[in-house]
Design brief:
Number of helices: 11
Distance between the termini: 53 Å
Strand order of the largest sheet: 3-2-1-4-5-7-6
Radius of gyration: 19 Å
CATH class of one domain: Alpha Beta
Helix content: 25-40%
CATH superfamily of one domain: Vaccinia Virus protein VP39
Oligomer: single chain
Strand content: 15-25%
């Protein structure tokens, strides 16, 4: 008997199944975060950058708007196709399989570094950077819902997907410690930019449908979970205010 569909798929590659939905509903990042990275690196228009795991170009556009020349790597052909429609220079490749051709001033990964494998991944970043070049890792980290709607949300996950309670396993400190332990980089600094958005029922469940831990659920379980989350949002006024922290780890190649 063949393995269930959810077990055959590799979690880091499921985003291509919903590339257009991902592009429509995944948030970008606040302007202040892009400006912080530019300032940290002393970057200027015309500087070259490498993006690891570009997706559909959510972060890419922020750096292009500031004049950087970005070469993007994205392992999903479906996601890369959406990025190309925006004029982004994107190569279908895992970072682990890619070889640099000329050094860049910035290497960054937005919502993607936790998918990169290989014990030599930091050394590979250093090889791609000019001396003194900037290494930036950043994520949008959603805060836990609080109050009555938070309790209701916890109850829904406890019933329909208990292993997903608490959301993504945001062990970001691991990456901070790994950068600090790598001789190729200076001690990293942390920058965080809070921002918020109000989501309707459909907007939130459409966003959940792009999360990898939801994608790999069996279809029927995912449908039940999203319907229950949508119903609780309706019961609590039809929308939910979500606070994000755009967290960046910044370092320089020594």
């Amino acid at each position: 008997m063949s393995a269930p569909r959810s077990e055959r798929r590799e979690q880091r590659l499921v985003f291509g199944e919903v590339a257009q939905q991902y592009d429509a509903h995944r948030p970008s990042y606040p302007d202040a975060l892009f400006d912080t990275i530019i300032d940290f690196g002393g970057l200027a228009a015309g500087d070259r950058a490498l993006e690891i795991g570009a997706g559909t170009g959510k972060a890419t556009l922020g750096f292009l708007a500031r004049g950087l020349v970005v070469h993007a790597l994205e392992p999903s052909a479906e996601m890369a196709a959406v990025a190309r429609e925006k004029g982004i220079d994107v190569e279908v490749s895992l970072f682990e399989a890619w070889t640099p051709t000329q050094p860049v001033r910035l290497v960054y990964a937005a919502q993607a570094w936790h998918w990169v494998r290989g014990d030599d991944r930091y050394e590979r970043v250093a090889d791609a950077l000019e001396p003194g070049g900037t290494f930036a890792l950043f994520w949008n980290k959603g805060r836990e819902w609080t109050g009555a709607i938070g309790a209701a949300n916890d109850a829904v996950y406890a019933e329909h997907a208990p292993h997903l309670q608490g959301g993504a396993a945001w062990n970001l400190e691991r990456w901070l410690a790994e950068i600090a332990a790598c001789d190729a980089f200076e001690a990293p600094v942390v920058r965080s930019v809070p921002w918020s958005r109000t989501y309707t029922r459909n907007e939130w469940t459409d966003l959940l449908g792009t999360h990898s831990d939801h994608r790999i659920l069996p279809d029927e379980q995912r449908s039940r979970l999203h319907a229950a989350v949508g119903d609780l949002i309706d019961r609590h006024g039809g929308s939910v205010d979500v606070v994000f922290d755009a967290v960046a780890y910044l370092s320089r190649r020594v």
